[in-house]
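FORM 7B - TANDEM STRUCTURE REPORT

SECTION 1: FIRST PROTEIN
SEQUENCE AND TOKENS:
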Amino acid sequence: ALEQPLAAIEALKRCIARARKDTLPRFYLGKLFFRLEMLDDALAASALPQRTRTTHKGDVGHVLICGGSAGKNGAVLLGARAALRCGAGLVTMAVPQRLAATANSSLWEAMTIALADDGSGNVGLGAWAAIERDAARYCSAAVGPGLGTGEGAIELVERFVESFPGRLVLDADALNAIARTRTTAEKLRARCRGGR
């Protein structure tokens, strides 16, 4: 059974080795046809929206990265840095109160929101209140990197699923929080069916 996948990988390697720089041929593998393309600078640039000379940072999106907990502040910083490098005009990190100063001094380009804290550097109950008043400002939110799975984190993920008006990416501990509560999973299904 292992021979077929290995043969497929070898066929793919041979195909790529014979390919010209700008295009790769089609090849047949079992019952499937594949067409491979080489990703280069020109193809990547063509997928990005064009910016004018007068484009302002407020014109190209505001991303909220929500997460972090004691010992896991780096996850939010990595997410915020990635959002900035991908072209977001504005990025805000929402982290527990105890971690806010560290996050703020670690990534000057991003803004910071201090969330309710449980006293140990983890998200506390009622953290959504700090986000709720400005939730409409954000085009999208990434929730979960380093968030933890305590009661405060579970409550916060549920509020995002219920109430966040923009696009929502749930990652890492946000997925763990959803797996722990059936009601949040059902709300997420309803949100997805509604097109958000």
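SECTION 2: SECOND PROTEIN
SEQUENCE AND TOKENS:
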Amino acid sequence: VLGGSGGCVTPIGVMRLYFKNARDLRNVETLGKSDPYVRCLLSGAQKARTVTWKNELNPDFDEVLYVPVHSIREKLTVEVMDEESNGHDRSLGHLEIPLKDYIVQSDAGEYQVNDKKEELSQTLVSGPGKISKGTLNYTCSFFPCIPTIDPEEEEREKEEAREEAAALAPRPSGESLSVSESASEHKEGSENPESK
């Protein structure tokens, strides 16, 4: 839902994020180690997440997540979190993925597949200009949505085509009169003795 409209906006495509691993994550636990997972936020709302790696600062996620996107202006944030059994999960750092680097339109206005699978290694940040400890290794791709026909819309179009075909179809004899038949009936009717 965009702009609080309450309606559903059709996505332009999906971002495919492959999270290979994270290295040298910050330990926020007093006993043991952090329990990291990765989550994807689109304009601040969580859309997907990986499984949690318990007691691990170098998790090998090896997991693919798909995030539907509706506009190039949306903000895609990837955040590594420490899962807590009591209380709120804590951020271990995040990074921003600029959608404009992946979403491109052709001259005809169609969105293009961007599947380079270039492995990226980014240092996590904890705020504007604040570098956090840890690196996330991942790939990012974009796949546009393929237009499909709504089954109800398809049925309406078929019904309209049937109605149009029926309106244009020739009628069986006797159902309508041609101009010559109409004229001959009129002539016969004027010679009818009862009409005189």
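SECTION 3: OBSERVATIONS ON SECOND PROTEIN
The two ends are 79 Å apart (CA to CA).
The longest helix spans residues 151-168.

SECTION 4: SIGNATURE
Preparer initials: ____
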